[in-house]
Specification:
The chain is an alpha+beta fold. It contains 17 helices and 13 strands. 55% of the residues lie in helices and 12% in strands. The strands form five sheets. It has a five-stranded mixed beta sheet. Keywords: Endonuclease, Hydrolase, Nuclease.
Amino acid sequence: MAITGTGVGVGEAFSGSGSLTPEMVELMFAQWEREQASDDWEAARDAAQWRAIDEALAQEQVSGWAAEELAGGLVAAGRGLDRAGVDADELVRVFDASMSDGLEAVGQLRARLDGIAFSLAFEAASRGLHTAVGLSLVDWLRVRCPMLSKQEACQVQDVVRAAGHHWGAPLAEAVRTGTGAVHRVAKVARTMRRLAGSLDVDQQQDYAKIATGAATNPGISDQDLDVVCQKLLIDLLDEKPREEAKATAQELRRVTSRPLGRGMTRFTVDAPEGDAGLIDGVLCGPLAAPTPAEDGTPDGRMPGQRKYDAFWLTFNRGTSNPGAPPSSARASVIVTVKADPATGRPEGAAVSSTGAVMDAAQAGRLACVGDVTPIVLGEHGEPLALGRTVRLATPGQFKALMVRDGQCTYPGCSVPGTWCDSHHLIWWCRGGGTDLELLVLLCPRHHTLVHDQDLMATITGSVVTWHV
């Protein structure tokens, strides 16, 4: 740098052999300080510009980087799993200790994968990706993850819904971090959703904390977790004044079901006290009493079976619609069953609108008593013909049956007519008409028996004779 007005550089001035005056030295140092200050300012300006550029780039690319990290991490995890996927012959050569370590590692990986899946599902739900394509969250998840069962997708949905509440934060965190299994946390989420309406804010957080601690404790089994959740319900009712507890119990009412296999389903009923008394009246009343046969043979049904029959008799009366016009049926059921296009006779398994599978005989019995429209399907499941929809006994016909039959017409049965169904002697699904000379009264128990054994009866005047 040159010194303004002198033509002598600072370096030259110190290294030259010419004489320097004190004024010249002072002037050179002042110029040097100005030059240093200028360099510092330019450096600071350049640093500020670089920081601004870096921040702008980071702001523009952060979303892309996150997506790349997510995809890259999952791809890398998949490559690692490919290495671990040894075949059965190779597994034979794995030592016992490595086998145990491998299973533990699988458990940890699964928990972490469940956490990632939940995080993605939660974010997708918050953005409304499923509603944008007109799907529920469960269906949307199963489209994206075809191997996910409906039950597992529902469990993820339960936790996602819970995460939207202030008390659900620890539940969501437990799944995200892999400290709580999805099915266990979902159980807590369902319990808390039932309880939340009856708790204040602090109670909601306390109850959620207790239940989350149980769900993330590996020492507590699934069965014990059920007990914890049930105890929270009982404690809640016990802590409230009686009148308030009644309202709370009404909010907690519910019926749940789960398949047991081999054609059985278990229903669990949580009923408020008042309703429970009515249910007990049916299950323990005259309808559930032992009924000896006409020859005096003791009733062979177990107490639990008699209670079920009493329940079914009461329930069936509501669905079978005795004495009401066909247009005002109390319950509607859609049953799809393949049938012979020529004869209309049901063939093979039938499926209800709720997914229940039944045989053709059961479908035929439902067509007698419920608001059921049989749909004839062709070889490839295409609708071929629609069944008739007006087939239930009219109020006048039912009254006439009450006068003629009075009670269940099956030999030895004394169930009053008011608890009976109108049965088509020629089944409706087989082309039978709703004519008085083709209708008889049967209690639900014997109605089932008649359909199961495909029994027939003849009517002579006012006498119904069953060919048993």
